[in-house]
Amino acid sequence: MSLSTRLRDVCRVALGRPFERREIRMGTIVTQRVWGANAEAAADEVSRELEHLERALSFHSPESDLSRFNANAGRGWTPVSADLLRVLERARACSELTGGSFDVTAAPLVRLWNIHGGEPGRRGRPIPPKCEIERLLPLVDNRDLRVDVHAGSASLARPGQMVDLGAIAKGYAADRAREIYVESGVRSAVVDIGGNVALVGRGPGGLPWRVGIQHPAERQGGLIATLAASDESVVTSGDYERFVESGGARYHHIIDPATGYPARSGLTSATVVCGDSTLADALATAIFVLGPERGAQLVDSFPGIGAVLITDESTRRVYVTDGLRDRFTLLDKRYAIHEI
Ligand code: AMP
Ligand code: MG
After folding, report:
1. Domain range for 232
2. For residue 36, how far is its CA from the centre of ligand 2 (angstroms)?
3. What is the CATH number of the domain that holds 125?
4. Which of 26, 69, 85, 328 is the 20 to 30 Å CA partner of 76?
5. Which of 285, 288, 294, 298 maximizes ligand 1 atoms within 8 Å of its Cβ, making it the mutation to test the pocket?
6. Based on C-alpha coordinates, what's the Rg of the chain?
């Protein structure tokens, strides 16, 4: 379990000491730093909300609302809880907006690959046989997910189809956390849900926060760059988060729904900066699948959204979309900033 984006909390003094909490929620490390009179109560409420979301959205827990929904695939409409309904609708829309590079129905393939590792050289399960991938690939089709927000129900067209919210649920949770902080009247807050960083207010001295982007080739939280940001989210997808290595190749956890194999787009990480954490999470995954050119085009189709794309060790390029250039500081000079 690794955090793909880390905060550099440069001068804590100017804002006073935050209330801090670090815990495992939604299968990842969650760090909250909250400033202001209601800090502790707000952090408690966020913790409870994340527990609640995990119960609703977990793919792995057979008791979750999501698992009950998946078990009904091919059997018509299933009533679902309000949170699952909202996330399913956002996920369905994001699948459409990204042309299916983020595809919420990729679950049969995600489960087949079953990549949880993160250690170089870790011996994982064998690479799935091509025939298995080809058998499951036709089940991946986000148009088969239908969501009726008025009736409070959703459906998957065919038996064997499944939804996995792993690429969007943490973003949704970060949006919920931000709403809770704002409603609680806290002055400033930073929450990092497994690499989904959401910011409330400004950082020390009324200046933007400096959010670190994890170095893709360095473990233990080394940074490749920082981004100035406030009142928005910074979300990273990377191939170094969960992977296994076999025959010299890295098989990571982000599947290209077009091929059924881990995406090989030349990117090693994609970071999205956006006021909407749910969208940022889905877009980061989609861009990672699409690669630099098509990924940058996708970002440009959303006004006000920025991205930082980093290519693998063989090319060491960094692409920064226009709106982010003056907020971006490259720390590792072995990498070079390129125009797309
Ligand atoms: P993220 O770290 O946000 O990019 O999400 C990766 C997780 O989302 C994986 O661990 C899978 O559970 C799931 N996933 C993998 N590939 C895709 C995809 N192309 N579209 C949607 N979800 C995916
Ligand atoms: Mg994502």
Report:
1. 5-49+186-338
2. 30
3. 1.10.3980.10
4. 26
5. 285
6. 19
